[in-house]
Write a structure and sequence with these properties.
Elements: E1 14-20, E2 26-31, H1 34-43, E3 56-63, H2 66-76, H3 79-88
Antiparallel strand pairs: 1-2, 1-3
Length: 90
C-alpha cells in the first residue's frame, strides 16, 4: 500500500472492515488506507479473497490507535466476535 504524508493537524486513522465475498462469506481485515485496501480486494490483489470477487464493503470502524484496531479485528475473528458481527453489523 502506498503511504501518504499527513497534513498538519491530520490524525492517522486505522480501520477494521468487513467485506462480503461473492460466495456469501465474510472477510474481516484492517488497514490504514481503507479505500485502497478495498480496491486491492476487488482487483484480486489479495490472495485470501482473489477467487471470490467482486467484494462489497458491509462495515468499517475507525480507530486512532493501530493496536486497538488490530485487537478489534482479532476479536471479530473469534467465535464470540463472529456472533457479535452477525447480530450487530450484518
Amino acid at each position: 500500500m502506498a503511504l501518504r504524508n499527513l497534513g498538519e493537524g491530520e490524525i492517522q486513522m486505522y480501520y477494521v472492515y468487513i467485506i462480503k465475498l461473492k460466495n456469501g462469506k465474510f472477510y474481516t481485515g484492517s488497514s490504514s488506507n481503507l479505500q485502497n485496501r478495498i480496491k486491492e480486494h476487488d482487483a484480486g490483489r489479495v490472495m485470501a479473497t482473489k477467487a471470490y470477487r467482486p467484494v462489497r464493503l458491509v462495515y468499517y470502524s475507525a480507530f486512532k490507535s493501530k493496536s486497538k484496531a488490530v485487537k478489534f479485528e482479532l476479536y471479530l475473528k473469534t467465535g464470540s466476535g463472529i456472533g457479535f458481527r452477525n447480530k450487530r453489523f450484518i
